[in-house]
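User: I've been trying to design a sequence by hand for this structure and keep getting stuck. Would you show me what you'd pick, starting by listing the structure so we're on the same page?

Assistant: Good idea, let's start from the same input. This is the structure you sent:
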């Protein structure tokens, strides 16, 4: 059994992928070829954002967004502690202070009360609360109504880290249209992944979109060798765009399949473990299906038992960011980050992908039940 089965998806669309790849080899425009613009139009159409600007990966998408809104020295940027390192590591690169915020035990997403405490403390320290980066962890949108209200009161930008949630929705709004800017990743194991690295910034704002189109090609002006600002090299390869076009064509169908797997898991497991909670009006894309056990000992024992039964699991994330060496100089919620700490000890992600057979689903359910009996 695979934790994420990319081969099953490839088998389904192999002929179309091959044709797309051959078309790129035939025209030879490997950088910024026509498939890149075609993909950007398709992504924008899929989620309803006015602009989709692709780039080299999801981490760059975050950093380009911070650059676009003008984050720099003296600014505080608020990030959840329970996330992948990318979300936070881009902040110090801009000269700003990375401020780690706690999450909610029910959704694993940013706790608005912790954000408010953190903003108050940052103001006392003489920093300007400049931006917040909510993460839609495991594919579930964060509490945007509360977060956007707090951000608006402080004049802060909202940069949504949707690396795991492209295709999800929040109160009828598709991910990509909620924050000022939304970033996503096409890392192979993400819900919409390519065969290498890739990323995108989604926004309705014409100026930011233009700025990011310039920043991703060395700060180009109207022409390639006219450099009007300091930028970087962060383009999506034409081949990856070609591959993503075929994957996007089956993505809506795959999201439905993920819902069915999640519903089967939740239906069978809700009585024995804490299953993921999806708040009313939200739709997750189930990048991960993550249950919570009672404590680290039980989690590790269950994980071992499942491994012996041939069932792969993962722990996302074994250490919250505020306990990582790289973030030892972080600032954080003055009341601590205890929920992030508890979650890192108790979460367990089960196999989740659109091609997980019902037989395999039953095997996972059976093994989890027997490990807890
Ligand atoms: C994967 C991921 C990223 C970074 O994406 P890359 O394409 O690997 O750079 C950022 N944030 C979160 C929450 C992620 O899961």
């Amino acid at each position: 059994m695979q934790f994420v089965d990319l081969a099953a998806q490839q088998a389904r669309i192999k002929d179309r992928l091959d044709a797309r790849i051959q078309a790129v080899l035939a025209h030879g425009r490997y950088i910024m070829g026509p498939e890149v613009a075609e993909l950007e139009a398709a992504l924008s159409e899929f989620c309803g954002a006015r602009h989709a600007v692709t780039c080299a990966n999801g981490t760059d998408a975050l950093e380009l967004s911070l650059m676009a809104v003008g984050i720099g020295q003296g600014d505080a940027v608020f990030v959840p502690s329970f996330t992948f390192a990318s979300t936070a590591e881009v902040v110090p690169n801009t000269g700003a202070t990375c401020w780690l915020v706690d999450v909610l035990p029910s959704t694993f997403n940013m706790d608005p009360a912790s954000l408010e405490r953190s903003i108050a403390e940052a103001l006392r320290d003489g920093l300007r609360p400049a931006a917040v980066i909510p993460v839609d962890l495991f594919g579930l949108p964060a509490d945007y109504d509360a977060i956007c209200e707090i951000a608006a009161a402080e004049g802060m930008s909202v940069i949504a880290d949707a690396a795991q949630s492209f295709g999800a929705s929040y109160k009828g709004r598709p991910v990509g249209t909620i924050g000022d800017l939304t970033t996503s990743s096409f890392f192979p194991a993400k819900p919409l992944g390519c065969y290498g690295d890739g990323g995108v910034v989604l926004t309705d704002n014409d100026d930011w979109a233009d700025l990011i189109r310039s920043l991703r090609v060395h700060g180009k002006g109207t022409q390639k060798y006219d450099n009007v600002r300091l930028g970087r090299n962060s383009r999506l390869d034409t081949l990856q765009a070609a591959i993503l076009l075929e994957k996007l064509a089956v993505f809506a169908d795959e999201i439905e399949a993920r819902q069915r797997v999640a519903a089967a898991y939740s239906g069978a497991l809700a009585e024995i473990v804490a299953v993921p909670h999806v708040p009313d009006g939200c739709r997750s894309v189930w990048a991960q299906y993550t249950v919570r056990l009672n404590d680290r000992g039980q989690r590790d024992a269950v994980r071992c038992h499942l491994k012996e039964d041939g069932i792969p699991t993962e722990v996302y994330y074994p250490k919250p960011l505020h306990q990582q060496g790289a973030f030892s100089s972080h600032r954080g919620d003055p009341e601590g980050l205890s929920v992030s700490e508890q979650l890192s000890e108790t979460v367990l992600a089960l196999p989740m992908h659109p091609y997980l057979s019902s037989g395999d689903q039953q095997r996972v359910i059976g093994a989890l039940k027997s490990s807890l009996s």
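That's my pick for every position. To get oriented when you compare it with your attempt: Residues 57-59, 83-84, 86-87, 135, 161, 163-164, 185, 187, 197, 199 surround pyridoxal-5'-phosphate (CB under 6 Å). The radius of gyration is 21 Å.
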